[in-house]
Each structure stands twice: as C-alpha cells, then as structure tokens.
Amino acid sequence: MDKQHFKLWYFQFRGRAEPIRLLLTCAGVKFEDYQFTMDQWPTIKPTLPGGRVPLLDVTGPDGKLRRYQESMAIARLLARQFKMMGETDEEYYLIERIIGECEDLYREVYTIFRTPQGEKEAKIKEFKENNGPTLLKLVSESLESSGGKHVAGNRITLGDLFLFTTLTHVMETVPGFLEQKFPKLHEFHKYLPTSCSRLSEYLKKRAKTPF
C-alpha cells in the first residue's frame, strides 16, 4: 500500500469527497487532495472518465494507473482495503445500515443548502417539523444500539466517518437543531475526533467551505 500513489479529484468543497478524505486520513495514507474551482471545471471535466467527480486515481508499484468513480464505491473499496468495513458480518451490516440512513439525511440537508436564500427559512422549518426528526431518530437509535461511541465494534469505520460528515452538514445547515433535539448524536460528533489524532489534526487544518 505504501508504494501506491493516491490522487483524489474534487471541487473545493467537502461534499461527496469528504468521507473518502477522512477515511484515507484515519488510515494514515498519504494522498494528493486535488481540489479545483468551479471556474476550472469546464476545462477539467472533459479530461475525466464520464466527466464526473469524485474520482480517485491509484498508481500502483508497477506504474499502472487505475481510476475509480462513484463516491461510495470508492469509500467502500478503501474501507475494505484498510480494514475499516467491520471485522464480522454483523459489523458490516451495522456500517451499511448507518450509511443508508445517512444517505437519506444527506439528501434532505443538501436540498436545504441548494434552496434559494429567500426560501431557505421555510425549507428549514419543513425539515424540523417533518423528515428531519424522523431520520435523525432512526440514526440515533442505530448508533445507540451499537453502544453510542462507534457505529460498529470499538474502532473507527467508514460508518463512523459517513455519520460524522452527515451530522456536520446537519449542524451547519440547521443550526442548533441537533444539539437541542438529539444530544446523543451531538455527543458522538464531539467524541469521534478525539478517538483518532489524525482526524483531529485534519479537522483543525481543514479549509472552511459552504458544504
């Protein structure tokens, strides 16, 4: 693995690439985090397979380049390689369950993020009164059933990192809601960086982005 070179292509956002960045960081894997602006995208897009990002380039010891697409397929591949996809079938299930639940939550908060400013307040109100509590309750119960500190087992997995990034989006998009209504999820969000020094250092240095 040490002889492989990893290059991750994505916009200057966290978005769909962030779980991949966090996973590589926690695994202690050096990678080239190639971030580009929206202005650069029209030039870069035709050079990428399918014209889509995130894209992960992996150059092996033999010099052969392999290109991987689809954010969660990349994340799952790396999680499997770096032993962050659970140690048993049951742990694998718990990780996949939380990822599925977080995908639904991610779509909700991303919709709010993309809503025009003048309509955003109404969209946030709708989230608080409808799907938000239902989805967060589901996630909270899943985490609690695993002990509350980690999604599966007693070490960081892809499930933890995907949950962490999703909760970050919730806290930024709907300020105060998670802290007030779902304190156990908020506690998890505060705890996770303390369980991995590499993650903690990365978060301290991470550039501020809107999403």
TrEMBL record:
One of its GO terms (biological process) is glutathione metabolic process. InterPro entries: Glutathione-S-Trfase_C-like, Glutathione-S-Trfase_C_sf, Glutathione_S-Trfase, Glutathione_S-Trfase_N, GST_C, GST_superfamily, Thioredoxin-like_sf. Belongs to the GST superfamily. Mu family. SUPFAM superfamilies: GST C-terminal domain-like (SSF47616), Thioredoxin-like (SSF52833). Residues 4-86 form the GST N-terminal domain. Homodimer. Residues 88-211 form the GST C-terminal domain. It comes from Fasciola hepatica. This is Prostaglandin-H2 D-isomerase. PROSITE patterns: GST_CTER (PS50405), GST_NTER (PS50404). GST isoenzymes appear to play a central role in the parasite detoxification system. Other functions are also suspected including a role in increasing the solubility of haematin in the parasite gut. Coiled coil: none annotated. GO terms for molecular function: glutathione transferase activity; isomerase activity.
